[in-house]
Amino acid sequence: MPPKSAAVKTVAASPTGTVAAAVKKAGAGRSKKNIVKSGGLEKTKKRKSRKESYAIYIYKVLKQVHPDTGISSKAMSIMNSFVNDVFERISAEASRLVHYNKRQTVTSREIQTAVRLLLPGELAKHAVSEGTKAVTKYTSSRDYTIPWTNGRLK
């Protein structure tokens, strides 16, 4: 019996009647795709790795604000970098606030304070109100229970 890490795969017979067998290691198929050629030979094709991006969300907001305006891929890349940078700054500041207050949990309060510290004046006010609105919408849209309370809200 072969070890669990290897599995035997039989490839369909070619027109000449030969059958090829290939040993495929478990987990190796995640980044490669087996392609069977007409001659019965197997060739592996590397899959494209997925890149996470805020592009679809940036595009949706752009269309809400300016429906007739487009955006170039270079500009989209810059906007994506900007969103990642702001996210990183807010999370770092919130983490610092938690550390200063000798706490262990980052809550919405720390995020809100970090936003107030990082963003200037009116921009901070709008960001806080939009964040509060989003949290309210999220909590009201689902059956919200705190996991460690066994279904009881305090």
TrEMBL record:
GO CC, one annotated term: nucleus
Compartments, as annotated in UniProt: Chromosome; Nucleus
Matches recorded under InterPro entries: H2A/H2B/H3, Histone-fold, Histone_H2B, HISTONE_H2B_site
Transmembrane parts of this sequence: none
Domain Core Histone H2A/H2B/H3, residue spans: 43-117
Primary location group: nucleus
Sorted UniProt keywords: Chromosome, DNA-binding, Isopeptide bond, Nucleosome core, Nucleus, Ubl conjugation
GO MF, one annotated term: DNA binding
Top-rank lineage group of the source organism: Eukaryota
Pfam family of the protein (one): Histone
Biological role stated in the UniProt entry: Core component of nucleosome. Nucleosomes wrap and compact DNA into chromatin, limiting DNA accessibility to the cellular machineries which require DNA as a template. Histones thereby play a central role in transcription regulation, DNA repair, DNA replication and chromosomal stability. DNA accessibility is regulated via a complex set of post-translational modifications of histones, also called histone code, and nucleosome remodeling.
Subunit note: The nucleosome is a histone octamer containing two molecules each of H2A, H2B, H3 and H4 assembled in one H3-H4 heterotetramer and two H2A-H2B heterodimers. The octamer wraps approximately 147 bp of DNA.
Family: Belongs to the histone H2B family.
Descriptive protein name: Histone H2B
Top-level taxonomy: Eukaryota, Metazoa, Ecdysozoa, Arthropoda, Hexapoda
